[in-house]
Amino acid sequence: MKQLTAVLAALLLATMLAACAHTPEPVQTQPAPAPAVSEPQQQTPEQQPAAQPDEPAQPEQDEVPAEPSEPQPYAGTFFDEPLTLRADIEEVVSYEITVPQVTLDNEDAAQYINDGFVALADSFVAYAQETVYETAQEKQTVGYLTGAYSITMDGAQLVVEYTVTERYAGEDLESISTRAYRFDAATGERISTE
Known about the structure:
- By secondary structure, this protein is α+β, with helices and mostly antiparallel strands.
- The chain has helices at 2-19, 107-139, and strands at 78-80, 83-89, 93-99, 102-104, 143-154, 157-168, 174-184, 190-193.
- It has a six-stranded mixed beta sheet. Strands 1-4 form a two-stranded antiparallel ribbon.
- A hairpin with a 2-residue loop joins strand 5 (143-154) and strand 6 (157-168).
């Protein structure tokens, strides 16, 4: 029965993650204008700009081909203010689900990430109300469901490690499931789930 509960918890988690995995619409960003490298020159009416050659200039022989560039670290800032859903269901189930609510420089990216985690929290609450509740009643005990996370920046990626723990009073065994979500901090797009 314990293995069945663990398998059901893992399947529910995978289903919820798949439901939250749609790709966001691309966020249009305007690059900042590059600063001037040289000082501006004054031009008199008699001066005309030099004619541009028809063919592009050939690279010098000493040039080394450019290597692929590595992702640049996220230059912006992020803040996290957790959202916690906590309740007891008829003294049979107790749950506490905490999900991140991030603030990024790009509000659309932050909203996309936050919406996904609110949907995940709602799915866990439904799981507590149905599956954990029924299992606790069958075992004639109290069921507990907790969800917690840690959040870090890894270069240009926001990394959220999320852990769900399901346990029942009187049992030493806990069902623990952990997933790591990686998001592009500039766009909010989920890069991977590990």
